[in-house]
Amino acid sequence: MIRVLLVDDQPLIRSGFRVLLDLEDDIEVVAEAGDGEEGLALVREHRPDVALVDVQMPGVDGIETTRRIAADPGLSGVHVVILTNYGLDRYVYNALRAGAAGFLVKDVVPEDFLHAVRVAARGDALLAPSITRRLIDRYVTEPLHTDAGAGLEELTGREREAVALVAKGLSNDQIAARMTISSMTAKTHVNRAMAKLRARDRAQLVVLAYECGLVTPRGS
C-alpha cells in the first residue's frame, strides 16, 4: 500500500486529489495539511511514502518543506513531489535542488497523476527526458553549489556512464540494456553514484550531474 500525504493551502485542490487517490486499491491518503509547518509535523508523524507538496504556501513554503524533509535522516523514505500551477519555473528547480523527487502541474490528467504517485513511491524520478532538457537548458548556466560534484572523483567509469544515462531519463532496465548489464547491476551503479555524490534520489542526481559538468546539455 502506497501511503500519501497531501500538503496544499487550497482545500479544493486537496479534496480533488484525495478523491482520485481514494479510488485506488493500492494507495491510501494518510493525512492532509494546509501549510508547510503542519505538513512537516504530519510527515514526521505518519512517514508517508509520498508527500505531495504545493510549491507556494504561506509561511513555510514547499521548497523549505522539501529541504527540511530531505535534511532529516529519519525521513529518508519520504519522496516529495512538488505541485505547481506554473509548470517549469524557478520554484520547481529550487525544489529539485532541495531534494524533491519531481514535480507535477496541477492540471495534470488523472491517469498521469496516479502514475506519478506510483513512480515516486518506487523511488524513481519524475523527470522525463524532455523535461530534463528544458530544465537544464534554462538553468544550467546558474552558479554551482559550492559542494556540487563533491565525490565526483570517486565515481568509477561505469558509475559515470550510469549517471549520464539517468540524466537522459532512462530507467534502470533501459540503462541495463544500454550498458549490457543486468538491471540489478545497473541499479547498484546508480545507487553507489547517488551515495558518492550525496544525492537524495534520482531527480537530485540528474541536477548534480549537470551542475558538476558530468553531463552537458548538448549530450542530453
UniProtKB/TrEMBL annotation:
Molecular-function GO term, any one: DNA binding
Organism encoding this protein: Nonomuraea montanisoli
Keyword hit for Transcription: yes
GO BP terms: phosphorelay signal transduction system; regulation of DNA-templated transcription
Residue list for modification 4-aspartylphosphate: D54
Protein name in the entry: Response regulator transcription factor
Keyword set includes Nucleotide-binding: no
Keywords carried by this UniProt record: DNA-binding, Phosphoprotein, Transcription, Transcription regulation
